[in-house]
Amino acid sequence: MNGVPVTAASRALYSCHTCGLLSRGADKGADMGGVVHCPRCSAELHFRKPDSVARSWALLIAAYIMYIPANLLPIMETSSLFGSQDDTIMSGVLYLWYSGSWDLALVVFVASIMVPLLKLIAMTLLLVSVQRRSVWQPLQRTKLYRVVEFVGRWSMLDIYVVTILAALVQIGSLATIKAGPAAVAFGAVVVLTMFSALQFDPRLIWDPLQKERPGHE
Amino acid sequence: MTASAPLIACHECDLLQREIALPPGEVVLCGRCGAELYRSAHSTLDKPLAFLLTAAVVLTVANVYPIVGLEIQGSGNATTLFGAAYALWHQGMPPIAVLVFLTTFLVPAVELAIMGYILLSLKYGRRPAGMTLLMRALQHVNPWGMLEVFMLGVIVALVKLTHYGTVIPDMALWAFGILTLLLAATASSFDIRDVWDRVEALPCREVDE
Ligand SMILES: [Zn+2]
Ligand SMILES: [Zn+2]
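Output (structure tokens, whole complex):
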């Protein structure tokens, strides 16, 4: 409230990831190789997640690449008496839409197409702003990060749908459903973006405020 | 700094704040970014334990019985969760089979086992062996439990299945629904901070190393 916000790192205090204890870190001597440990739970302590931005970027770029086959390749291959049919995620949505389940079509569209794409864009925005040490709207950016963390898992929806269908629709020549190659790419997108978000340290959003303020006074 | 109340750092923006005493059921949010700092401790361990043990039973039921059956022109077919993962594996999709198995069975099972072990140890006044390792494992596996997403996936699949034949919802479908709620209840009553406070408060504390 009064002037410069005081963070734990600015007072050389570590906040433990595992148990939450605030400490200066137990000095266990040279045998620990300069690594600081928590006096309560002995977990390794860092002021910020190590190499957060670089790791987060690497995982995010990999996710961008996998997003392309995930949407272009078939996620479900149906073969029946009347021939075979390959469905991409989008054609699956259209199928639900035209068969009258517009509500589920919307759910699948949001969970499988919108959410992954918005997550990729949101993570890019967060990483770029942190790298540029932006002081723009830290609260809104923190909220954006929380949204990314919260919605991440919901993109798994289509994988589960295909899992159930592929297990049940195996009636010999009548109809057979198989998971297509896009399932692997899509699973990779979900896993990679989740790892990217987990590597990101939201405290980096607030750190530039720390450095800016004293200069103004 | 002369400490009156203990300090706490926000895990999302690192702001230092003083702890305040809390009436039961209340939550303290960070003054700057609004992240949850801590919640008031539960008076007993019985509530999380009760949720947890029920969840373990329901998890077993959910994996023993089929989720849903499908009948096409007289020939029927039903699948359990394991059956579905197994089918994927043999259709040349081992990575997806593993992902499904991890997110819907292994992660919830491991979480329940770890929390159960910690809570039971504390209930009998013992410091759980390997506490740090277990708490860290819990934090790492937690984001990968996706039962609620799986539930929604099953519902979408049910709708699509009606196109092929008669859909017969089975025991495990309801079990998974209930399990989703139970896991949420267990997670919200298992408080990391409270658990560490209880470990610290134990009379004779053995050192981890
Ligand atoms: Zn610690
Ligand atoms: Zn905060």
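Chain B has a mean pLDDT of 89.
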